[in-house]
Amino acid sequence: MKLKSLLAAALLSAGFLQAQAQSGPYLGIISGYNSTWVLDQKLFDDPNYENRSTWNSAPFGAVIGYKLNPSSSFQIEVFKNNMGAEFDIKGSDIFAGEKKTVGEKRIELKYTSVPILYKFTSGEKVRFNFHFGPQFNFLSEGSEVNQINQRTTLNANLNSTDLTAADIAFYGSAPGTAIDVEIPNKSIVLDAGTYNRPDKNTYVASDKDNFNSTDIGAALGFGLEADITNNLYFSANLRFYYGFKDIRSDKWVEMEESRGYYDSRNNVTGGAQLGIHYRFDL
Asked: Outer membrane protein beta-barrel domain location, by residue (predicted)?
């Protein structure tokens, strides 16, 4: 009886020590690659644009966390993150003519991203993890440009287009005809070149000032972790992010609301994240 009690105590002690060995702080390095979107129904419906797949990197970052027990951890990540979207520009040689691809719209945003995550882990040497939490993004660069490859006519000055009456006044419009005298008020003619949106000559001097300096949203992910040694492990995760704030500045939003073109414009990403981590057992 005494021997059985001693064996039971030894097994319990071993289990406790093993659990303790799986707790403590950890550090890591991470890198990711994402499909990125800018959700804006007005932009999706704009006759001048056609959405296309956009891929961007979150090239490098660092992780610091604390493993409370074998299944629960909290961690903070800090990483460089590229977001945005690309669209084909659809124009024609004449007003209301046959549409063709004449260039591309690029929304390019560079952030320092800081997700604060709770992570649940199951398993031992190879284990599943699920994690979620808020993510804060701090803008370092931002721009939206229309790159036109040939002289073209686009729709303008309508609540279905992001090209405004100010653009028509600045760049000119397609000539009117006896059939439709409103053509000069409905179209814009652009030569090949790069055009900032909104146009910096009529709005602000800095592209970055057109965007919110912060973006806040929710991060969610899941994946696998595998031990390389007792304390060194590898992670491979799928990670998703949805931004709650409009990415544009208040002034830009007010301009779009005043002409009936406004719909919220939000960052969305989804992709893969890889990492190497080292845990310091207590």
From this structure: 6-280
